[in-house]
Amino acid sequence: MKSLVLILASVFSANVYASLNVTSSTKEALVIPASASSCLARKQAGSSAPKADIPAAYFRIPNITFTKSSSKDMYIAQIKVSLTVPGSSSPYTCVIAGDALSALSQQWWPEATPVDSLIPAGTASLKTDCPLYCGNIPTDKMFSATATMRVDGYEQDRNSDDQSPVSAHLNFTVTNQ
Fold it and tell me: Least C-beta-crowded within 10 Å: which of 113, 120, 134, 157?
């Protein structure tokens, strides 16, 4: 994958880079008390049965839409989902990057090999066609909590090596019933 030159840290607000917007049809994600197979596991399995690589107590986001207002190429570097589970001593974080990120879209994994998570110049948006899974939610109690999905990446003109960071976030509810 292309090298990522980002100096994002937590200094930048998600609203600073307005050229990326992220949406999902999911407003509430339910915690499922079972294991599952990620998009990456399914892609790597080919015609074989995929392994269950998502630990029990997971939630999923069926589709994510990335919309850009820039005329440049935009590379998505990672998706980070964070939430504080009531009664847990530390925040829960799920990071999707690399091949796991590429596996979310047929455009990013067109054949047997993944490619960059790119929204090319001339394309206004891209919608994933495989769900994002986050597993190993640290609770067995009922709860409802607000989760934040943060998408980080960069945009780049095809005629330049200069990269500009992009970031967007989306809030949704995670519920364990």
Answer: 113
pTM exceeding 0.85: yes
Q: What are the pLDDT tens digits along the chain (177 aa)? A: 333 333 222 223 333 455 899 999 899 999 999 999 999 999 999 899 999 999 999 999 999 999 999 999 999 999 999 999 998 889 999 999 999 999 999 999 988 778 889 999 999 999 999 999 999 999 889 999 999 999 999 999 999 999 999 999 999 999 999
User: Domain 20-176, what fold?
Assistant: Immunoglobulin-like (2.60.40)
Pairing of β 73-83 and β 28-30: unpaired
**Burial class for 140, CB neighbours closer than 10 Å (0-12, 13-18, 19+):** exposed
